[in-house]
Protein 1
Amino acid sequence: MSQHTPAPDRTPTASGRSTARVWGVVALLLGIGIVVPLLVFLYDRPTPTLFGFPFYYWFQFLMIPIVSALTYTAFRLSVRATAQDRSTRASDASGADR
């Protein structure tokens, strides 16, 4: 005979909802860094110039540190959310063992 073990409760906890929000922010930050450079109509013009460079070029160079900062922020948030997810799962697992 096989024993039936009940499925674990999958209702989101407060910490689960907060990490879901963090993952949403991570997706938003990465999405901004991906989508804005693809919107060519935003920067497809020669004026204004900066040190003789048309707007197209210096906007692209300006996007490099901005997207880098967004990516770094998303990475740090994901590291924190992953650690929180793992600690929540570990505490859930230890509570289920009792």
Protein 2
Amino acid sequence: MISKNDLKRISDYLWEIPRDFKSGMKVPARFYASEKMLDQLFKDRSLEQLVNVATLPGVEKYALAMPDIHEGYGFPIGGVAGIDAETGVISPGGVGYDINCGVRLLRSEKSFDEIKHKLVDLVNQIQRDVPSGVGRGGRIKLEKESMDKILTLGARRAVELGYAKEEDLENCEERGSMPGADASAVSDRAKRRGYDQCGTLGSGNHFLEIQRVEQIFNQEAAKVFGLFKDQVTIMIHSGSRGLGHQVCTDYVRLMQSAMAKYNIRLPDQELACAPFSSPEGQQYFKAMAASANFAWANRLMMAYLIRQAWKQVIGQGELESVYDVAHNIAKIERHDMNRRISTNLYTNRTNHESDVNIKVKELIVHRKGATRAFGPGSKEVPEKYREVGQPVLIPGSMGTASYVLAGSGKAMQETFGSVCHGAGRRMSRAAAKKQIDAGKLKKDLEAKGIIIRCGSARGLAEEAPLAYKDIDNVVQVVAEAGLAQKVARLKPVGVVKGG
């Protein structure tokens, strides 16, 4: 068991479990948290899981966790690991079952006062138009050839089919189409589970949320992102649905049987993995990339349905994409492996002294319940955002705020350009169902001016704000640690959830 006495305090918001804590650790384990968050962390297996991540072959610098850390499958949720692409492994447990669960943010030209009299109608129309719930299919049915094109091309295929615009691709991580995707690596069973789920919401913590920009922290960055105070935005939080879940299931089994072949021994079988360069590792990467593409297309098709609902109810004004980020993914990235590097390596400023002895390495960066947060000057960031850094979208729990931040150079130094993906659970779904009265919760939220539409009382109780950490505290840790800069706080005014 890990206790506070085992921790080394690196800074006000950064803690380390040293490499000698457990036999087999190849690097220290580090996590971001305020001191008052620590007690919660000792209530589940998340820190133990983080230590186990530090034993993975090829792991570099640190096994990392963000302040929304909680227990997951294999990796803790909130976990990040950069693993050497030549000598290291890839692990489905480091990505998760909902591959590329992520967030797309749409911005309107309207202020809240301009549409508030139509808010109920808008929420109802969105709920009618976007199917949601476990296994729920939608109006868009994909035959095998169409499915394979979605898996290969991702959001690009949504544009080809007329569901989106070229600008939607620009404002998206990987332009919504991850290189290396191969539809043939996805099983027929996974494809069958996804054939009618493009353009659908799903269940659990997924949501469609109408929001009001409550506060602007950085006027310059907000202007670059197209955000202003009291503006209406819409956030889409969903992933690869049953298709991604089946891909993870398929490849966890494959990896578990392959580890003996490669003489890999780990303290937790949930971390089942294979060398990235192996046939099994490459096959999983191709299937995961295809699942990520499915998720980007899914969110973009939901955006299309939401835009149609907006036109029907509001009539005027376009909904433009701010950005779309993935939360559960493994990606090939190049990162500087020096422990002390200058922020200006990732900005447009030049400091020749800091350009000496740069050691760049190609890594497989696993982000499990964590999101990319690349800093200013990064070529992967759309050119129009490059001066301020990548838009970072952090959704809150139902009924609480969400945040828009901007990535930083310090995140590139310390966390492979990563931050938290949300508030993070503090209560299991089973515990939430026992403790929370869904009817009372709905009344309480509506009393705060938040319109709620949910397919079931169970789904409402499981996702209650009480079941999550305080999003303001989590984001404050990220900001104070210098991993991202707060840009705007978004307050929910209408929420549609799956059952």
Protein 3
Amino acid sequence: MEFKETVGNRRTIRYFQPDRPVEKAKVQKILEAARLQSQHGNAQLVRKAVVVTKGETPDDVRNGLIDALYNQPQAAQAPVAIVWVQDMSGWKPFKENLMNLMKANALPTGYGWSEDFIDNTDNAVLATEDFNISVNPNPHFAEWLTSFECGLAVGSALLAAVDEGLGTGLITGRREEIRKLFNMPETCTPTQVQLVGYAAENLDGGGGGACPRPDFGDLYFADTWGNALPRDPQVVEELKAAKLLQPEGPHLWRKAELNALAGMFGLPE
């Protein structure tokens, strides 16, 4: 599938075929896409995941996760759940990671990078014992950046699932309960859980079409805050042709589909 169409096709799927397993190869491809996303300072260990698979993960663990996800129906239906986690201990080898970037010739010496610069423990760019990776008055800066890094990976994972013809969507739950369920160390915080499976609803579900979005000019500004960036109508038409921009829902058939799905899963209409 072309990249633009993959982006345009992404929907939050809420109904899954519970007894149709997901091929392990497809799950691996989702994780590989997340692993290759951009990361600040080559901090590759700050974002991790636990994969929970119906029929393989012990029932008490999977049921515990479903309970921690507020027993939402889609959590029980999806045969695979990927618990995305940010791990603050992943900043510990920050200096080593930068050195590896130097060895790979990724950090330009013309910008002042050198092994001596990285090895200088007084440098503001280096990790401290409490994971503050930059001199910043906000003590939560490293936590914010870690969340951002995890979000980048999850975004790629969602698109990879769509590209594989799977249904996928994010769901949230009781984080501390999830952390204890999987025996995660204190440095870990579960973020979102990505549900993966074959959709029981039309893949154009999630509202029966693309969800409404804010106007382009309400999101993006030129030169100063609040000055709407112009949106070129010709580019819009090109993106419609490439299927990145798709008609907004709801489709006329969506209500009937929801009623049928409710009957299928014994849920109220």
